[in-house]
Amino acid sequence: MREAAMLKAHNPPAMFAPVGPYCHGLEVVQPTRFLFSSGTMGLDREGHAPDGIEAQLETAWDNLKAILAEAGMTVGNIVKVTTFLADRSLRGPATAYRQAVLGDHKPAVTTMVAGLLQDDWLVEIEIVAAA
C-alpha cells in the first residue's frame, strides 16, 4: 500500500469550528495520484440492498474499501467524502459509522438528503482519495 498523500487540514479561526468529525478544508500538499469513486451504494455482489441503514452503511464502506485497496490505498488516503441519504433521520447513523471507519482521520465531508434511484437504497457515498 502506498502511504497517504501529505495533507494539511484547514479550520480557519475566522469561521465556526467543525460541528462533527471533519475539517473545513483538506489541502493535498504533495499527491502523486488521485482516486475518484462513483457514488457507491450499500449493494452486495449480487446488486441487492440489505435491509436497514447499518447493513447498507457497512456494505457501502466495504465496497469503498475494496476500491481503495485495488488502487493500493486505504481509508487514510481519503480527502473528501460525500454522503447522500434517503432521509434526514439517517444522518446520525451515517456520521457515526463514517467516524468508526475513519477513526482519527478527518477528511472534508458533505452530507445531503436526496432522492436515491431506488426506494430500497438508503445511502450512497462517493470519495476522493490521494496518494
From TrEMBL:
UniProt-listed Pfam families: Ribonuc_L-PSP
SUPFAM superfamilies: YjgF-like (SSF55298)
GO molecular function, one term: deaminase activity
Family matches, as InterPro entries: RutC-like_sf, YjgF/YER057c/UK114
CDD domains xref list: YjgF_YER057c_UK114_family
CC per GO annotation: cytosol
Highest taxon of the lineage: Bacteria
Residue ranges of the TM segments: none
Sequence similarity: Belongs to the RutC family.
Protein name (record): Enamine deaminase RidA
